[in-house]
Every structure is written in structure tokens, then in C-alpha cells.
Design goal:
With 88 residues, this protein is an all-alpha fold. The chain has a domain of 29 residues. Helices cover 88% and strands 0% of the residues. It has 2 helices and no strands. The longest helix has 59 residues. It starts with a helix and ends with a helix.
Length: 88
């Protein structure tokens, strides 16, 4: 009778440790998935912020004016000066 009680007690203890191990495995997987989701959300948020900043800077940027060639500018000024001199 004592042996039977001892065997039952040992069997319950062994089953309990196995159940705890399974519980800890499941808990560990849940923690891992939660951490992955948190990292993914953070990356998505930061990416969205940087994309928004880039788009805003592109849309709100002043348009560049085309630069004229220096030679063309000088030629125009000379032509204007020559015409002013001839008129006077």
C-alpha cells in the first residue's frame, strides 16, 4: 500500500513537471511573438514617419529656376548696352 501511494505520488509529480514544461514552452512562444509584433510595429511606424517627411519635403520644396548660361547673359547685356549707346 505504501509502495502504491509512493508510485502514484511520483507519477503525479512527473506529470506535473511535464505539464509545466509545456506551459513554459507555450508561454515562451507567446512572449516571442509579442516581441516580434512590437518590433514590426515600431519599424513600420518609423518607416512611415520617414516616408512622410521625404514626401513633404519633395512636395513643399521650392521649384528650381533654370539657370541661364553666363555667355547668354553677357551677350544680352552687351546688346542692351550697344543699343542704348546708339540711341543716345
Amino acid at each position: 500500500m505504501k509502495n502504491l501511494k509512493f508510485l502514484l505520488l511520483a507519477l503525479l509529480l512527473l506529470m506535473g513537471t511535464q505539464m509545466e514544461a509545456q506551459l513554459f514552452k507555450k508561454l515562451g512562444k507567446r512572449v516571442e511573438r509579442a516581441a516580434e509584433r512590437t518590433v514590426e510595429r515600431r519599424v513600420e511606424r518609423e518607416t512611415s514617419k520617414s516616408t512622410d517627411r521625404v514626401l513633404d519635403s519633395v512636395i513643399d520644396a521650392p521649384k528650381k529656376q533654370k539657370r541661364k548660361n553666363k555667355r547668354n547673359d553677357e551677350a544680352i547685356k552687351e546688346t542692351e548696352n550697344d543699343s542704348l549707346v546708339k540711341i543716345q
